[in-house]
Amino acid sequence: AVGPAVSVQVHCHNDCALAVANSLAAVSAGASVVQGTINGIGERCGNADLVSIAACLALKSGGAYSLLTPQSVPRLTELSRYVDDVANLTPNNGAPFVGRSAFAHKGGMHAHAMALAPESYEHLPPDTVGNTRRVLVSELSGKSNIAALTSTHGVVDSEVTKAVLAEVQRREALGYQYEAADASFALVVSKAMRNFTPHFKRIRYQVEVSGYGSIRHGSNIYARSAVDASHMEYERSEATVKLALPGGGYMHEVAEGNGPVAALDAALRKALEPTYPNLQDLHLTDYKVRVVRLPEGGAAGAEGGGAAPLHTVIAGTASAIRVIIDSRDRATAETFSTVGVGTNIIEASWRALVDAFEYKLSRDDAVWAQLEGHEPEAVEAGDVEARFAADWKTGRSVQRPANARHAAAQSAQPQPPPPPFEAREQQQS
Length: 429
Hints:
The chain has helices at residues 19-28, 50-59, 76-86, 108-116, 143-151, 158-173, 182-192, 260-272, 345-371, 384-394, 404-411, 421-428, and strands at 9-11, 33-35, 104-105, 134-135, 201-212, 234-244, 250-257, 282-293, 319-329, 334-342. By secondary structure, the chain is of the alpha/beta class.
C-alpha cells in the first residue's frame, strides 16, 4: 500500500488515444504530478497533452484543482501555437480547446443557432482558453453564415451580405473554397463593400522550369550515374513578373527560386518591396495543392466574369487546381490563409500569392489610417470606379516606407516615367 506521504506521478503515452483520459483518471485517484508535453509531442503516438489536461483540470473540475492562475488559462492557445512554431510543426486544427477548428461552425442552420444560443454548440466560450469562434464558408453556407462572418468585418448592410453570398457561390462553382482561406474571404468582403483598392496589377508573368540530366549546363553528355530519364543532376526555376503600380509606375523583375512557386514569390517580392518594404515581414509557412473536379461546363479560367476563359476544360472531365497558402505576418504574429484556383498550378499559386500580398498590405493600410487619426473614407457605390482611377493616377495607395533606410533606397532608384496605366492596358489587350 502507498502511504499518505508518498507522491504519485503519472506518465502516459497516447498509443490507444487515452493519454489525456488516463492522466485525468490518475489525478482523480490521487496522483499529484502529471508528466506530459505541450500538444502531446512525443515518440510513437505522442505523450499526454498537457494543454488539454490543464484545461480540463482548470475548467472542468468545478474548482477542485488549482494548477494555473486565472490569467494563465486564456493563454493556452497562444502557448500551444508558440510551441508548434518553435518546433516547426503544423498546428493540429482539431486539437481540443486550442485548435483552429475547436470552435468552428459550418452549416447555415448551425451558424444561425450559434447566433441565438452559443452554449448549445460550444462547451465553453472560446476566449476562456484564448481561442476564437470561426464560422466557415463552404458549399453548406447560407445567409446566416455569411451574415455572421461579414459582421466581423463591420458589415451591417443586407445588400452587401447578399453580394458576398452570391460571389462566394459563384467562386465555389469555379473550384474555390473559403473555409480554410480566411484572408481571401476578407478580400471578397472588402470588394463587396466597395472599399478595396489594389496595390498592384498584373501585366504579365512568365515561369521557366528546367531540369538537367547532364553533368554541366549545355553539355550533351548525360551523367553516368543516371539509371533512366528520371535522373536529374540539378533544377533551375526562374520567374519574370511585370507589374503596374499606382501613379503610373511599373516594375519588371526576374528572380530564381527552389521551384517555380518559390521563384514566382521571389520575383513578386523583388518587384514590390522597394515600394512596399513592409512585405519583408510576410512569410509563407505552408503550401497545399488539391485537384478539384468542377461541374460540367465550369471553367476555372473564367474567374473574371463575362469574358470567356483563355483555357477552357472539356465538359465531363473538368478539373481545376486549388492552392492554399498559409502565411505569417512577423510584425503582428498574425497567421492567415489564402486560396487560388486555376487550370494550372502556376496560375492557382499566383492568385493565392496575390491575395496574401494584398491582405497584408490592406491590413497595414488600415493600421496606418488609424495611427494618422482618420478612418479609410467611405465611398458610394457609384464613385468606386472614379476612386480607383484617381488612386492609380496619384499613387495614393502606395504605403509609407518602414524606415529611413527604405526611404533612401526608394529615392535612390528613380524610375523613368512610363506611359499611363490606361494606355498600357489598351496596349496589352
